[in-house]
Amino acid sequence: MQKGFVHVLILVLVMIIVSAVIIGAEFYLFGSKHIPSSSLKSATSDSLKTISKISAPQADNTVIAASNSATIQESPIYQDVNYGFKFSYPSGYHIIYDSEDEYNKRGLTNFRANFTGFIGYPPPSLLEAIELQKAGDTSRDRFDTAQFTLWIFSNPNNLDPNQWYYKYWYYPFVWGDFASPDREEAAPTNESSISGQPANFQIIGYQPGIPKYVYIPYKNDMFLFRLISTPDTSVDTKVMSSFTFIGN
Q: Is residue 123 within 8 Å of 151, Cβ to Cβ?
């Protein structure tokens, strides 16, 4: 082998080695950097938490729960242990106790004296009178437009609704009309049942509010209901559907 060829071969080998060293250094300095596995795990976990909060907000469940709880409202219950009945009524209303004296003041007359003088005998004895009025209502006609009114009279002779009507009409609200057929048309000839007790009723179309008068005889008493329905509410229906005699 010639001496000059050996020199060339050595030079080529040196260049190859140098090139290899340079390439390796570039790969080390500018190639992919190693990321610890713990860092990858932490980053992935944080990303999933963020996505979870966006895609499934907890606020929806809170709104539903609040909506459900807001619609569940217990209705107030009125219970009368003296005359043995109870009923529920809508919130926003309250019970008002009435009397013949107060009724006379509103009517600017004495209805009991007028009845006795005109008919020739006194009206029945009033035991209790209640009305259901909307809270905050201070209108002058609130008693006349009350959707639920109950007057309880003593009925010692146990008259049935028709016998009672032909003696007292619907005192103190309607009375004194002897003319036929008006008196017959206003008679409580319609039959029903409330809390297991027979009831008779009639609708008086010529009075304001077109009231329904209902008679129920119960334990030597006569219950007289005056019910008025309005297009926007059905308080009378709600009350009567829950009306229950207790202590039967």
A: no
- Which pair of structure tokens corresponds to residue 181? 């057929």
> Token match 């999933």: residue?
48
Residue for token pair 């207790």 = 246
pTM given for the model: 0.69
Q: What's the distance, CA 134 to chain centroid? A: 15
pLDDT per residue of the chain (248 residues) written in tens, 0 to 9: 444 444 444 444 545 554 544 444 443 434 433 333 333 333 333 332 322 332 333 333 222 222 233 333 578 999 999 999 999 999 999 999 999 999 999 999 999 999 999 999 999 999 999 999 988 888 777 888 899 999 999 999 999 999 999 999 999 999 998 887 889 999 999 999 999 999 999 999 999 899 999 999 999 999 999 999 887 678 888 899 999 999 76
C-alpha dist (Å) from residue 120 to 101, 165, 180, 203:
21, 16, 20, 27
